[in-house]
Amino acid sequence: MEDNTLISDNDIVEEKFLDCRINGQVPKDRSVRLRVMPEQSNDYRVVVFGAGGVGKSSLVLRFVRGTFRESYIPTIEDTYRQVISCNKQVCTLQITDTTGSHQFPAMQRLSISKGHAFILVYSITSRQSLEELKPIYDEIIEIKHDLEHIPVMLVGNKCDEINREVPTSECAELAKRWNCAFLETSAKTNHNVKELFQELLQLEKRRTMSLQLETKKTKSQKRKEKLKGKCNLM
Ligand SMILES: Nc1nc2c(ncn2[C@@H]2O[C@H](COP(=O)(O)OP(=O)(O)OP(=O)(O)O)[C@@H](O)[C@H]2O)c(=O)[nH]1
Ligand SMILES: [Mg+2]
């Protein structure tokens, strides 16, 4: 049975490994397993895309765990969960950290169709990594048809590095054309990492989303607060 109980703030639910069919077919390589999270109806699914090594996992791990590692361990696909507020209710932010290897196009399409919002990451030190975002963007458009109601952030990571290949102004222009928001980040120095997720949630206009939990107060909480307000120090 799936455990659908609510989790506490900043908790990360363990990933579950399941054999998975992609487009109805078992992957040829049986060792390829998708990490599938138990679904919840109020999950808000964010998918992180970008070329290998641009720092997708580093951004996600910096955000959910507050950590950074110098070593590079390529990802197949990982999903993390964090409790957030949605329409003043508790909801789960589900972040899928994808592979940059382009080896699993079916997984990419599945992630796009299930995703509510997207983070497109390139490295400011690699023009090639920016070029690699274009087909991903095209595929999002193809699957979702219209980006008007879909939050998308274009993110230039590694902005702490001095060997820049991609000027900021160029991507600000590109973001306008792609009708999405744009930020430069550094997972290493923790520059703009929380802001990235905050801005993404603010772009969601169909729900009121916030990283802070501001759930509805119970009647007794409201009464207590009212009483507190009436107390004077003698
Ligand atoms: N200087 C600097 N290095 C970074 C930054 N973010 C990540 N790195 C380094 O870049 C390398 C790749 O980072 P990952 O987060 O694993 O990259 P990825 O995009 O998840 O790569 P794949 O999983 O293969 O797609 C690691 O050695 C990180 O330490 C950053 O903001 N600045
Ligand atoms: Mg990774």
Automatic annotation (TrEMBL):
A cellular-component GO term for this protein: plasma membrane
Location relative to the cell: Cell membrane
GO-annotated molecular function: GTP binding; GTPase activity
Top-level taxon in the UniProt lineage: Eukaryota
Main location group: membrane
InterPro entries: P-loop_NTPase, Small_GTP-bd, Small_GTPase, Small_GTPase_Ras-type
A GO biological process held by the record: signal transduction
TM annotation in the entry: none
Bilayer topology: Lipid-anchor
Keyword rRNA-binding on entry: no
UniProt keyword Lipoprotein, yes or no: yes
Compositionally biased spans, kind Basic residues: 218-234
PROSITE patterns: RAB, RAS, RHO
Segments of this protein annotated with the region Disordered: 213-234
Name the UniProt record assigns to this protein: DIRAS2
Lineage of the species this protein comes from: Eukaryota, Metazoa, Spiralia, Lophotrochozoa, Mollusca
